[in-house]
Amino acid sequence: MRIRTVQSADEQVACVALADGRLARIDRVLTHGPSDLLSLLASERLGELATAIAVGVRDEDCVNADAPVSVPWTRPRKILGIGLNYGAHAGDLGEQAPRSSPASFLKGDHTIVGPGQPIIVPPGIGKVTSEAELGLVIGRTCYQVDVDEAMSYVAGVVPVLDQTAEAVLLENPRYLTRVKNYPTFFAFGPDLITLDEALAHGPLEDLRVATVHNDVVHREDTVSGMTFSPAELLSFHSQVMPFYPGDILSTGTPGAVGISSGDVVRCELGDELASLTNPVQ
Q1: Domain finish residue from 15, 38, 63
Q2: Would you state the pLDDT for residue 182?
Q3: What is the reported pLDDT for 95?
Q4: Cβ neighbour number for residue 160 with a 10 Å cutoff
Q5: What are the pLDDT digits (tens) for 181-202?
Q6: What is the DSSP letter of 7?
Q7: Per-residue confidence (pLDDT) for residue 131, from 0 to 100
Q8: Are 55 and 145 in the same domain?
């Protein structure tokens, strides 16, 4: 399934994008269903939703197919980012990819913007980069799990554009929290793509992740090029902290590109699985 949040009349509602182009409201397809995507994840009713969709959806349970797409949700309990998880990107910063354990950082929900919303480059901080990433969305509480079971806690994937104040970071690598937490420095969406839907396009390790700048592919790699796999990242960090439904684990970028006002950046997952596009101001 592909699940998104759209603006319908004067409210935002979570919908499933159906194969025939219709948008089915979750709160009408499910009995006592939630109206927002984060509550859907917290209720752990994705399986029930898939069954209801397979049975069939009435037209009166759908919204306008052209309804504007919004940010999927704005209040995850945590956004965890991974640094230098591809060797090539580590070289961009004059670093080596960590080998013994992954490097990570937390981002506040004030950094979130949705598809098509502007990424704002703050004045006076020097070079800012944008980085396409594969985001894992947690579907149920996940704490101290093994690598071989970690992906069973993942509800789905999202395209991510993660921003960095690179000039500030190069002053001191300990500034990681500072350089990652300006407003608009985390874009994701438009769809939560359930894990079964993503895997229907092929093994996750074969998934292409590309940073695209002004319609030119700047850097791309596959998930197999990560130093630490998605399952390893989730398992490792779950030993330290619990993950909750709606939390996002952004798994690192194959390459960061410098951005400035007037640019357009895009994250592409696969050739056709998903893309996220944001303008820069």
Answers
A1: 63
A2: 98
A3: 60
A4: 26
A5: 999 999 999 999 999 999 999 9
A6: E
A7: 98
A8: no
Same domain flag for 32 and 114: no
Angstrom distance (rounded) from CA 217 to CA 206: 18
27: containing domain: 2-63
Predicted pLDDT at 32: 93
Report the DSSP beta bridge partners of residue 2.
Answer: 193
33-88 confidence digits (pLDDT tens): 999 999 999 999 999 999 999 999 999 999 999 999 999 999 999 999 999 999 76
- Please tell me the distance from the alpha carbon of residue 220 to that of residue 164, in angstroms, as a whole number: 18
Tell me the average pLDDT of the chain.
Answer: 95
Spatial contact of 82 and 251, defined as CB atoms under 8 Å apart: yes
Q: What does each C-alpha distance from 42 to 123, 139, 141, 193, 277 come to in angstroms? A: 38, 7, 9, 16, 27
Domain tally for the chain? 2
The rounded distance, in Å, linking the Cα atoms of 174 and 271 is 36
Query: What phi and psi values does residue 204 have, to the nearest 5 degrees?
Result: -60, -35
Q: For residues 131 and 253, state if they share a domain.
A: yes
Domain endpoint, select from 32, 63, 94? 63
Q: What DSSP element (H or E) covers 210?
A: strand 208-213
- Taking the CA of residue 29 as centre, how many other CA atoms within 13 Å lie in the half-sphere pointing to its CB? 32
